[in-house]
Amino acid sequence: MLAESVDIPDPLPATMAKTVHPLERRIEPVLDDLPETAPTGDALSVPVSAPANAGSLRSLLAEVALERQAEARAQNAEALRRSIPNGPAAVTPARVIAVVSPKGGVGKSTLCAALAGALGAKGRRLAIDLDPQNALQYHLGVSPDVAGMASASLTGECWNGLLLNGLGATRVLPFGLVCGQERRALERFLEDDAHWLARQLARMDLTADDVVILDTPPGRTLYLEQVLDVADQVIVVITPDAASFMTLDPIDRLLEGPANQAWQRDCHYVVNQFDASRTFCQDMLEVFKRRFGKQLIGVLPLDHAISEGLAFGVNPLLEDEHSSARQEVLAIADALKSPVRTSALAGSRAS
């Protein structure tokens, strides 16, 4: 007997959902490379949640900050450009002496302070520190704790009101304790206005009886270029060693200026820290004598009392009349009394 036939239904269409018991559902893994949003098109796009990338956010914020800083620098540069005067500056009638050195460690600031106290002048004797090391004040006994010291610096608009009393009846303008941003702003002025220092001195209403002595950083700097724009006399401080000798050619070329320049600088040389007990020092001094001739106007002996006095706030070069180094400083001051050449316009002195 044949079995009764049974109709087998067709498989469910693929588009129809199959009912599955909840416990039989399979959890599929989430792949890392899935897009964050569904494909765009006619269908509705549904965003997929993703963790925030803190590193990317920091990068974006850094970019925004850099753009803001660049915009601020551009605005500052434009304001600086508009503030720079055009044309030459007036020449100060005061006598201006610059103390320079081709390298550090030669006692430049020490000699600058000593000369400021030794130079005879009917008017004021001003010592202005153009060296960011800000050391000249200590050699002239100016205490950093005196009232107004925090605001006394080259960045001030009116230098007359910032002068402090120093040893030897001097008046001192320190470089000042300026922050990095203030120093960069100052050096932008120096770079963009070749006669910035001349303008500052002209604002001080100095007279022909006044003497200004300028301390500068070692080597060729923006400060040195400003000094050579105003100096009537230049003193180059060197030590009797090979290192000083090797730095002479570049500084000599800088001080000589162009061959066709009408105004020639009144340049002198001083050998400092000379140790007569050493044969090599004696030989180096002879070399310098042959090279500079009459331009060598002084030889200061090595005197440990000078550095020791700095620790106690005294300066033997200004106060010890029995010091041989003190007597040599006075001789240098006398040698500088020779007539100096002047120019009709500030700027003709610059190389």
Could you describe the 3D structure shown?
By secondary structure, this protein is an alpha/beta fold. It contains twelve helices and eight strands. The protein is 35% helix and 13% strand. It has an eight-stranded mixed β-sheet, sandwiched between helices. The radius of gyration is 37 Å and the shape is globular. Mean pLDDT is 78; it is low at 14-18, 29-46, 259-263 and 340-351.
Briefly summarize what is shown.
The chain is α/β, with parallel strands linked by helices and 351 residues long. Helix content is 35%, strand content 13%.
Q: Can you tell me the overall shape?
A: globular
Q: Give the strand content.
A: 5-15%
Uncertain residue segments: 14-18, 29-46, 259-263, 340-351
Instruction: State the fourth-level CATH superfamily of the domain at 95-335.
Output: P-loop containing nucleotide triphosphate hydrolases
By oligomeric state, this entry counts as single chain
Distance between the termini: 129 Å
Order of helices and strands: HEHEHEEHHEHEHHEHEHHH
The CATH topology of the domain at 95-335: Rossmann fold
Rg calculated over all Cα atoms? 37 Å
- Widest sheet: strand ordering: 3-4-2-5-1-6-7-8
Q: Tell me the major beta sheet.
A: 8 strands, mixed
Q: What's the total number of strands?
A: 8
CATH class of the domain at 95-335: Alpha Beta
Total helical segments: 12
CATH architecture classification name of the domain at 95-335:
3-Layer(aba) Sandwich
Helical proportion, percent range: 25-40%
Overall pLDDT: 78
Structural class: alpha/beta
